[in-house]
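Suppose you are handed a protein chain with no further information: no name, no annotation, nothing but its sequence. What can you learn? This example shows the usual starting point.
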Amino acid sequence: MTEEHPYLDHEDILKRLPHRFPFLLVDRVLEVEAGKSIVALKNVSANEAHFQGHFPGHAVMPGVLVVEALAQTGGVLAWETAQQEERAVRILYLVGVDKARFKRPVKPGDQLTLRAKLVLNKRGFWRFECEASVDGHTAVEAEILMAAGKDV
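A reasonable first move is to predict its three-dimensional structure. Written in structure tokens, the prediction is:
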């Protein structure tokens, strides 16, 4: 991120995460401070496949996908942190979700603001305190634990 390019766009995110369509759930990174925190966006579109069955006539983004978007946001923060520490992070596996709370539904047309704060980076384990919100209202909060995997 630079003054001329103050955010990470789709191409930048593809360089930092192994996920690809249709499972890449982070659209833009607004702020990132390596070793500390990140703020990202997910634009929720009615065209996403899960809305066909969840639920017809009352579309709601599955909570597990909101948690996955938070985990991917943490993955970008881990990548940025590892680069600063001159270590590689190629893939992180989701190994734990604690204190998850689902406070409001996420619907097509919403823009999720995804926040993650790094609280642990030790021996290949990364723990993040996370929150997803829509229009300033918390939709999901959770603590997410990830473990570094082998290169893919």
